[in-house]
């Protein structure tokens, strides 16, 4: 049974940092693509960043230069280091994974999801 478990969320003041982690289990090998999405109430879930086992990474424009995605392939974990946080980064953050050979910004392409974790940035 595939499971993704996020940790590390919380509250921080504007300009601060948080680090999210996600541990994946139940896969045969490592999922090709792991990603972070976020969702604000009343809005669509949007991609934050994704990273393939090949090392290819991609970031959404609003977080470029402030967020860093990383993976430990052997441990099946993905992390999101979030620096210079802004109030507009406040959202529920979700870890997602896709076993097959494609990374995508489209949430419908991801098979597996974590439960979500709250990040709140106050001004």
Structure report:
The strands form 2 sheets. Strands 2, 4, 5, 6, 9, 10 and 11 form a 7-stranded mixed β-sheet that branches. The protein has a 4-stranded antiparallel β-sheet with strand order 1-3-8-7, with no helix packed on it. It has no helices and 11 strands. The model has no long low-confidence stretch (mean pLDDT 95). Strand 4 and strand 5 form a beta hairpin. The protein has strands spanning 3-7, 10-13, 18-25, 33-39, 46-52, 57-59, 67-72, 77-82, 91-98, 112-113, 117-122.
Features:
about 120 residues, mainly beta, globular, 7-stranded mixed β-sheet
| Structural shape | globular
Roughly what fraction of the amino acids lie in strands?
Answer: over 45%
What is the count of DSSP helices, taking H or I runs of 4+ residues?
A: 0
SSE class: mainly beta
Q: What gyration radius follows from the Cα positions, in whole Å?
A: 13 Å
Q: What is the N-to-C succession of helices and strands?
A: EEEEEEEEEEE
Assign a percent range to the helix content.
Answer: under 10%
The counted number of beta strands is 11
Overall pLDDT score: 95
- Low-pLDDT runs of 5+ residues are none
N-C termini distance:
40 Å
Largest sheet: 7 strands, mixed
Compile the SSE list and pairings.
Blueprint: E1 3-7, E2 10-13, E3 18-25, E4 33-39, E5 46-52, E6 57-59, E7 67-72, E8 77-82, E9 91-98, E10 112-113, E11 117-122
Parallel strand pairs: 2-11
Antiparallel strand pairs: 1-3, 3-8, 4-5, 4-9, 5-6, 7-8, 9-10, 9-11
Summarize the structure.
The protein has 123 residues and is mainly beta.
